[in-house]
Design a protein that fits this description.
With 139 residues, this protein is mainly α. β2 and β3 form a beta hairpin.
Amino acid sequence: MSYTLAEAAQACGVNRSTILRSIKAGKISGQQDESGAWSVEPVELHRVFAPIAAEATPKAVHQDAQTDALVAELRAQLAELRAQRIEPGPQKRGAAQRRFERGGQPPRSLVTVSSSLTMWASSSATRLRRRPISSRAAA
């Protein structure tokens, strides 16, 4: 009983085009019938391509009781750690942040950002005021 190209490819775990290329290159012999369909003898096919195992699907991994217990313990520890998660308190804040909260100057990073935005906004407004009305309408 001979294989079709699709059956041969499935039997070896390769693509149909691989089998056809091997036939055309002369590595394996195959016959083409009057309708153009190819057939390959199993002996000839497996001379070049190794057959795949009958049960090539991976089996489910069996977990034993010890693994299940370990997973349960780790999940419990993770839940406990999540419950104990502490939000950063006053001891975690920097000195500049504490001074700002007491009414002092804001940290430099805030001053830099806000002054940069203020400078940009004021320069944009100045540019708008300096342009003639006709050029503002075109933009």
